[in-house]
TrEMBL record:
Highest taxon above the source species: Bacteria
Coiled coil: none
DNA-binding is among the record's keywords: yes
Keywords annotated in UniProt: DNA-binding, Transcription, Transcription regulation
Organism: Pseudomonas marincola
GO molecular function, one term: DNA-binding transcription factor activity
InterPro entries with a match to the protein in the record: LysR-type_TF (IPR050389), LysR_HTH_N (IPR000847), LysR_subst-bd (IPR005119), WH-like_DNA-bd_sf (IPR036388), WH_DNA-bd_sf (IPR036390)
Classification of source organism: Bacteria, Pseudomonadati, Pseudomonadota, Gammaproteobacteria, Pseudomonadales
Protein family (similarity comment): Belongs to the LysR transcriptional regulatory family.
Entry protein name: LysR family transcriptional regulator
Chain ranges passing through the membrane: none
A Pfam short name: HTH_1
Gene3D superfamilies per record: Periplasmic binding protein-like II, Winged helix-like DNA-binding domain superfamily/Winged helix DNA-binding domain
């Protein structure tokens, strides 16, 4: 096919194809693109004719791509990224008048401890923009970036999509939270003897604190796991339970009163917060503005 032949290709069909590759479902693709299922089915029929291939074969409840579909996707996805970048570079962004909708992913600790100052800045600079916050973590982030559910996210990350970009925005030390009235800081023996609470998205009863304690041949006793940081204040109040949380989360929790914070009674490594974003929107003026504000008000330049 030469470039003149491209005139008969509807770009919207390629967007439908990419979404089907991510979702493997006509229903979910329709929801993602805000279209009806008949429209997606009709587009799939046209795509099959365009590429002379079934593209997807139903397997149970899922639609599995054919080898030809996998080959097309490997070529098409980067091409759509380049097209998106080319179009975005031609546009201007004025935060004072923009009504753009930004979809970002934040882990619970970031949402609780670091989102408020970011919101204040965005409201001051861009009163017309809309911010949609989705809960994410290192397991969910790759899929949410790939599918376009979010354009940028902040949390600890591991593997990311091949075209995603990432940078460290903050390095943090954990702090000890307590609500009791016993004077003085806890010793390591006291720390290990106390009952502990932790925040766990998946309901785990251990984390990197336990890995650090294991290096000292010590253990702690976790008696409570909750999914969100904002629950810790009331739950620790009136008990001898302690919690080890990121320093920025500790600051937000102690600001509400009833809790105090202190350093851990042992040396601990820092942990990183990453900002990751879709490569297709790396040069988008609006997204660049948003990422700069995240860097300023979620990041900590002194820790970098």
């Amino acid at each position: 096919m030469n470039r003149n032949d491209l005139r008969r290709v509807d770009l919207n069909l390629l967007i439908v194809f990419e979404t089907l590759m991510h979702e493997r479902s006509v229903t979910r693709a329709a929801e993602k693109l805000f279209l009806g299922q008949p429209a997606i089915s009709a587009s799939l029929s046209r795509l099959r004719g365009l590429f002379d291939d079934p593209l997807f074969v139903r397997t149970g409840r899922s639609m599995e791509p054919t080898p030809r579909a996998q080959e097309i996707f490997s070529l098409l996805s980067p091409a759509l990224d380049y097209i998106s970048t080319a179009v975005s570079r031609a546009s201007e962004f004025d935060p004072t008048t923009s009504t753009a909708v930004f979809r970002i992913g934040l882990s619970d600790d970031v949402e609780f401890g670091l989102l408020p100052p970011l919101i204040k800045r965005l409201r001051a600079e861009a009163p017309g923009v809309v911010l949609v916050v989705r809960r994410t973590n290192y397991l969910l982030m790759p899929g949410m970036l790939s599918s376009g559910e979010i354009s940028v996210g902040v949390c600890y990350t591991e593997d990311l999509p091949a075209n995603a970009k990432r940078k460290v925005v903050r390095r943090s030390l954990p702090k000890l939270l307590r609500a009791d009235s016993v004077p003085g800081p806890l010793s390591l023996d006291d720390y290990c003897a106390r009952p502990h609470a932790l925040v766990s998205f998946a309901g785990d009863l251990s984390g990197f604190i336990d890995e650090e304690l294991a290096k000292l041949d010590r253990k702690r006793r976790v008696v409570l796991a909750v999914p969100q940081f904002n629950a810790l204040g009331p739950l620790l109040s009136g008990t001898d339970i302690v919690a080890s949380v990121p320093d920025y989360t500790a600051a937000a929790l102690t600001a509400a009163g009833g809790l105090r914070t202190e350093p851990l009674p042992f040396e601990s490594k820092t942990f990183e917060l990453h900002m990751a974003w879709r490569g297709a929107q790396d040069n988008d003026p609006a997204e660049r503005w948003l990422r700069s504000r995240i860097q300023m008000f979620v990041g900590d330049p002194d820790s970098l």
